[in-house]
């Protein structure tokens, strides 16, 4: 009888020891792999964050006909060393001194009127080689379009949403580890009498970092 009790106790002891060894091995393995996986996840997150660029465009345009002050904050993502794309928001203050005459199809001089222009945008820039970039930017802008009424001799306005599509070329200069300064000229391929811009060609300066 004592022999069977001794064997039973030996079997129980062996099972307990085996379970403890497996648990310790499992814990040790977890301690070895968890930091590696965590480090890789943190590295991927850091790389993703490092590729985010913030900044914007600004421009001033003064003439005898119209005055524009243009500000456009934006957020972009650096998909590669050559390609950046993102979204932003445009705001312009405009002082207009011309209105469109629907009867003659010409612009007529008027007393200066204030106009607020705003709306979202999407953009993409491709750096062809060092110092030169090509860009495209789409916008949908809310603004007042002024028309001239020859009967009353006064302008009147309609509030409209107008699409804009810019093609851009310019000079770029790297700034820091990932930033860039851009000076370029844009051409609005959708330019018309009701455009929120005074001309199809529009100079612009951009900074992203």
CATH domain class of the largest domain: Mainly Beta
> What's the arrangement of strands in the largest beta sheet?
1-2-3-4-5-6-7-8
Helix content: 10-25%
Mean pLDDT: 83
- Beta-strand segment tally: 8
The termini sit apart by 83 Å
Order of helices and strands: HEEEEEEEE
Described by strand count, sense and barrel closure, the largest sheet is: 8 strands, antiparallel, barrel
Indicate the proportion of strand residues.
over 45%
How many separate helices?
1
Reported by name, the CATH topology of the largest domain is Porin
Which term fits the overall shape? elongated
CATH architecture identity of the largest domain? Beta Barrel
Supply the helix-strand structural class. alpha+beta
Descriptive overview:
It is a single chain. The chain is of the alpha+beta class and 209 residues long. It folds into two domains: 1-50; 52-208, Porin (Beta Barrel), CATH 2.40.160.20. It contains one helix and eight strands; from the N terminus they run H-E-E-E-E-E-E-E-E. It has an eight-stranded antiparallel beta barrel with strand order 1-2-3-4-5-6-7-8. A hairpin with a 3-residue loop joins strand 1 and strand 2. It is elongated and about 80 Å long. It starts with a helix and ends with a strand.
